[in-house]
Amino acid sequence: MKAKIIATGSYYPEITVTNHDLEKIMSTNHDWIVQRTGIEQRKFSNHNTSQMAYYSAVDVIEKAKIDKNDIDLIIVATFTPDHFSPSCANEVAKKLELKKDIPSFDINAACTGFIYGLKIVQAFIESGMYQTVLLVGSENISKVLDFDDRGVAILFGDGAGSAIIQASDRGIIDTVIANKADKNKALLVPNNVKIETPFTHNRYCEPAYVQMNGQEVFKFATTVFVKSLKEIIKRNNLTFEDIEYIVPHQANLRIIEFAIKMLKIDREKFVVNLDKVGNTSAASVPLALDELNEQGKLKKGDKIILVAFGSGLTYGVSLLEW
Ligand SMILES: CC(C)(COP(=O)(O)OP(=O)(O)OC[C@H]1O[C@@H](n2cnc3c(N)ncnc32)[C@H](O)[C@@H]1OP(=O)(O)O)[C@@H](O)C(=O)NCCC(=O)NCCS
Question: Which of 71, 183, 194, 242 has the fewest CB neighbours in a 10 Å radius?
Fold first, then answer.
């Protein structure tokens, strides 16, 4: 039994922030951002992460044409949850007003969250434990950006992408997830809980803003992007000719172009929407996948690869048969 994505869904926030809008509040310019990243605009939301996840869930449930009460597990991948607890997945279950009590939990693998989620869902479905899973990547990154840090604030956007995954005779073929832990401070979001009790030493509490060593992350991303693609192809005795589409994490066009050049893959195979949405972390891969799916480009039996990297430093790749 395999785990198959039977439908994909999206939620795009209501506020569009262009590079020109950013020019008005920080020392940057449209041409620099486009040249270094490929990003032209991003979406910011007034909703919290679970509300965006819920909107995306409603979209995917409708497209999957399933009864929402058939869902037997909900996982939300996010590094920007509404609360420490309850989880966003708990909130989504509540908002969906399901008739039965089902398990729901969050995972945090930053921008690789959706691929980590796929690996978990794959294991659960292949073992026969669950039959219909809702997997959402949802992020509210605008709230953890320091708009005085132009090297970071220009990169990210909010949004939520989702999938319904069911047991089937075809679907996910192989998923590899990993973490390069020795570089785990190159991309960091501190939590700003006051660390002060009557019984422990008080510690300095930093604001919860994304901190990044851009060049270090760039080097890591290009290396693991190429390595992951090569590995998944080799493990499954395929060539890139066998792959219809590659849906990469939408961090930076230069990272994608590096892989295209190194691996000599046809550019048309890469799905790119970062110009319109920026880096939406765990929402990035499912949003791009849903865009591809909505364009009607995916055909039964197509082999596609999803690949991502992010804070952790995490990375992951999944090969699917549509
Ligand atoms: C962030 C990133 C775009 C910066 O590009 P870069 O080529 O490394 O740029 P640098 O940080 O070396 O800065 C080059 C110059 O541009 C300036 N600069 C930085 N941000 C700028 C901005 N938004 N607008 C204009 N100038 C900017 C720097 O101050 C620096 O100026 P200086 O040479 O006078 O000191 C790039 O490092 C990157 O994409 N890294 C990966 C980030 C990523 O994908 N993170 C998410 C992973 S999930």
Answer: 194
**How many Å from the N-terminal Cα to the C-terminal Cα in the chain?**
15
Angle at 110 between CA 108 and CA 116, to 5 degrees: 65
> How many angstroms separate the CA atoms of 67 and 269, rounded?
34
293 lines ligand 1 (CB under 6 A): no
154 CB near ligand 1 (under 6 Å): yes
- Are 301 and 265 within 8 A, CB to CB? no
Backbone angle region of 220, left / alpha / beta, with phi > 0 → left and psi within -120 to 50 → alpha: alpha
Task: Report the Cα 23 to chain-centroid distance in Å.
Answer: 27
Q: Give the C-alpha separation, 233 to 245, whole Å.
A: 13
SS3 state of residue 22: helix
CB 78 within 8 A of CB 138: yes
**How many residues in total does the chain contain?**
322
| pLDDT 10s digits, 54-99 | 999 999 999 999 999 999 999 999 999 999 999 999 999 999 999 9
Candidates 17, 36, 139: which one to mutate for ligand 1, based on the most atoms within 8 Å of Cβ? 36
Cα within 13 Å of Cα(57), Cβ side? 32
The topology under which CATH files domain 2-169 is Peroxisomal Thiolase; Chain A, domain 1 (3.40.47)
- Token code pair at residue 100: 């039965």
**297 Cβ below 6 A of ligand 1:** no
pTM reported for the whole predicted model:
0.97
Choose which residue among 188, 218, 257 to substitute to test ligand 1 binding: the one with the highest number of ligand atoms within 8 A of its C-beta: 218
175-183+208-321: CATH superfamily? Thiolase/Chalcone synthase (3.40.47.10)
The domains of the chain are located at 2-169, 175-183+208-321
pLDDT tens-place string over residues 206-243: 889 999 999 999 999 999 999 999 999 999 999 999 99
